[in-house]
Design goal:
Number of strands: 2
Largest sheet: 2 strands, antiparallel
Helix content: 40-55%
Structural class: mainly alpha
Number of helices: 5
Length: 140
């Protein structure tokens, strides 16, 4: 599961003394990734998967297969190859705008090489204190 920063979390981290430069660097990386979405097939797949876009419709599958058929790893030649490929390329432009909108309005900034921890809050005191921590990891 990918980790994202948002406005409230950024505010808490700022109050704890995390320098602003760290957030700006992550934001620059996110904008750069969104802008490269229309450039390379691999980056397109990564960005769409990271932001959960096009999954039910198999957009990443289509992009990869069109790239393989055209023998290219760039998205640019898609527009020259007919209506379906043009539709896919135009859809990727909309995906880029959507990602940039999330960055601007919600500060939904992906954090690479980060993990999301899920915990249970025992407010009633029923659970016994445990000194073990079990971690499961999977690649996205």
């Amino acid at each position: 599961m990918a980790m994202f920063l948002n406005r409230p979390l950024i505010k808490v981290l700022e109050d704890l003394g995390v320098p602003h430069d760290n957030f700006l660097q992550l934001l620059k990386e996110a904008v750069s990734g969104a802008e490269q979405l229309k450039e390379y097939v691999r980056e397109t797949r990564r960005q769409l998967t990271l932001h959960g876009l096009g999954g039910p419709f198999g957009v990443t599958f289509l992009v990869e297969n069109i790239g393989a058929l055209l023998h290219t790893n760039r998205i640019g030649p898609f527009k020259e190859q007919g209506q379906l490929a043009t539709f896919i390329a135009d859809s990727l432009e909309f995906a880029e705008v959507h990602i940039l909108r999330l960055l601007k309005l919600k500060a939904r900034i992906p954090v690479s090489k980060a993990h999301v921890g899920v915990a249970v809050a025992d407010e009633s005191g029923i659970l016994k204190e445990v000194s073990h921590l079990f971690l499961g990891a999977r690649r996205a």
